[in-house]
């Protein structure tokens, strides 16, 4: 669902604009999403795929896979029969293929005239109008420099952001916005899916995950949580790969990714002062973003990749 909000402050924006540059030698490249994967060709109706491919170039740096992933999550590319897709609104007041609030759609159309071929006047229920409006809205929210921020503007939910990023990666034959030849391995993809499902779980030092206890009245009490390496260990356990417990041990277990390589979904990102002092680990979900359990008082969340990157490993290559 699209919400009309004020974007981050200038200082935050300046920090985000460097995220497509090298970080301690690892190339975090950005591209337009690559060609459609077989999954995309099988799942996206031809008319919608054409719309996504045509609309994305109106915003430099916007991947068509991001538009397609939003279309999938919001309305299954117009095929959903839930209230608010073909007519009316959902419980939050949004409607149409890309689930716009009417006020937000009107604001976007007022700033960006839509191309001919849609409805007259423009309508959020018209697929062409909705997809182009979504591209313009993402561009207004600086999607090329801050993918997570732009998706958060679209829907204030970490789970939503992760779902869109993961879907976008699946739709691209080149791994979404990761760069060429970086489609995720099965294990890397499974680890990302697991980590995505843990968003919002509290940080707990030494935590290996939430514990569920059934109470006498039938309710379930949830306790526990994850620390950084507990999350990555659990994510790869779900993918069938065993990792040691601490961030330092996971870094040493490798295999290390050369600094000249591009990131892949599921790569583990290690932070600290050097190879002998690794203090944090996260799991890459895009070329600029990671899921991690950052610190006490926080929850499992999506963060931009930190600047003090020590190294990258690819546990999926361990088989």
Automatic annotation (TrEMBL):
Keyword Protease: yes
Keywords carried by this UniProt record: Hydrolase, Protease, Thiol protease
GO molecular function: cysteine-type peptidase activity
Domain NlpC/P60: 185-319
SUPFAM superfamilies listed in its UniProt record: Cysteine proteinases, Lysozyme-like
Keyword Hydrolase: yes
PROSITE patterns: NLPC_P60
One Pfam family in the UniProt entry: NLPC_P60
GO BP of this protein: proteolysis
Family label: Belongs to the peptidase C40 family.
PANTHER family: NLP_P60 DOMAIN-CONTAINING PROTEIN-RELATED, PEPTIDOGLYCAN DL-ENDOPEPTIDASE CWLO
Official protein name in the record: Transglycosylase SLT domain-containing protein
Source species of the chain: Parafrankia irregularis
Lineage: Bacteria, Bacillati, Actinomycetota, Actinomycetes, Frankiales
């Amino acid at each position: 669902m699209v919400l009309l909000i004020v974007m981050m402050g200038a200082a935050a924006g300046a920090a985000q604009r460097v995220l497509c540059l090298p970080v301690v030698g690892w190339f975090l490249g950005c591209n337009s999403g690559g060609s459609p994967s077989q999954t995309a060709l099988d799942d996206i109706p031809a008319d919608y795929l054409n719309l996504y491919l045509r609309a994305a170039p109106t915003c430099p740096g916007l991947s068509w896979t991001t538009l397609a992933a939003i279309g999938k999550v919001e309305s299954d590319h117009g095929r959903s029969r839930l209230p608010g897709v073909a007519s009316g609104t959902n419980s939050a007041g949004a409607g149409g293929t890309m689930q716009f609030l009417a006020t937000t759609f009107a604001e976007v159309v007022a700033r960006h005239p839509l191309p001919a071929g849609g409805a007259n006047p423009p309508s959020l229920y018209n697929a062409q109008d909705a997809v182009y409006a979504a591209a313009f809205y993402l561009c207004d929210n600086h999607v090329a420099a801050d993918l997570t921020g732009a998706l958060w503007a679209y829907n204030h939910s970490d789970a939503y952001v992760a779902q869109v990023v993961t879907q976008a990666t699946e739709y691209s034959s080149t791994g979404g916005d990761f760069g060429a030849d970086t489609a995720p391995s099965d294990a890397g993809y499974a680890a990302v899916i697991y980590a995505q499902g843990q968003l919002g779980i509290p940080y707990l030092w030494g935590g290996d995950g939430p514990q569920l206890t059934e109470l006498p009245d039938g309710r379930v009490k949830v306790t526990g949580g994850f620390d950084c390496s507990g999350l990555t260990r659990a994510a790869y356990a779900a993918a069938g790969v065993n990792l040691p417990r601490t961030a330092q041990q996971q870094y040493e277990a490798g295999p290390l990714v050369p600094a000249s390589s591009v990131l892949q979904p599921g790569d583990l990102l290690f932070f600290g002062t050097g190879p002998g002092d690794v203090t944090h680990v996260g799991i890459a979900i895009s070329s600029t973003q990671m899921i991690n359990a950052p610190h006490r008082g926080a929850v499992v969340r999506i963060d931009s990749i930190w600047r003090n990157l020590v190294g990258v490993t690819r546990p999926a290559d361990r088989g």
